[in-house]
Amino acid sequence: MKNILLASFAVILSLFTNLLQAQTDHEEHADHINYVVLTRSVPQLKPILLAAEELAAQDGEKFGEFQVVVCGKAVQDLTNKEMMNGFLQKAEKAGVIINACGFSLKKFNVKRSGLPETLRVVENGILHNFELQKKGYLSIEL
Questions:
Q1: 40, 42, 106, 124: which one has the fewest Cβ atoms less than 10 Å from its Cβ?
Q2: Which residues pair with 35 in a beta bridge?
């Protein structure tokens, strides 16, 4: 009986600790509005970057981080310097982080060395999106 009570107390304490941690994570991001967009089309970067600029203007000091995750076959276009140059310049100016999905890179045989240096690679774009959502990021998929 004593072991059951101790085990029950440990489970309740663990759940309470996890709940407090989740609340703390949310509060850390509550003072800023953060965004993440998952896209399967590089040309979609144009309206995404325009939206980021407009949200930054609307949000003012509350504007936080804006990330884009490029997944699927679109990762092949990320190696096209001519296509990407304008997007990357605009993203840098707007403070937008562009990520490439590592799973997609592998699936479509795109070498990381062929990507622009300013691009980040996340191992799993969908998981990265969910992790950011759990931190309070507003999310949309295009």
A1: 106
A2: 66, 138
**Identity (one letter) of the amino acid at 34?**
N
Length of the chain: 142
- Please say whether the beta carbons of 72 and 103 come within 8 A: no
Q: Judge whether 81 and 135 are in contact, CB under 8 Å.
A: no
Q: Could you state, in chain order, the average pLDDT of each consecutive group of 10 residues for the chain (142 residues)?
A: 50 44 51 95 96 96 97 96 94 96 97 94 96 95 88
- pTM score above 0.90: no
Point out which residues pair with 76 in neighbouring strands: none
CATH superfamily, domain 32-141, is DsrEFH-like (3.40.1260.10)
CA–CA gap between residue 139 and residue 95 (Å, rounded)? 17
Does residue 52 sit in helix, strand or coil?
A: helix
Q: Whose CA is closest to 99, among 68, 76, 73, 57? A: 68
Amino acid at 89: Q
Q: How far is CA 91 from CA 45, 88, 104, 108, 109, in A?
A: 9, 5, 21, 24, 25
Domain range summary for the chain, segments of one domain joined by +: 1-30, 32-141
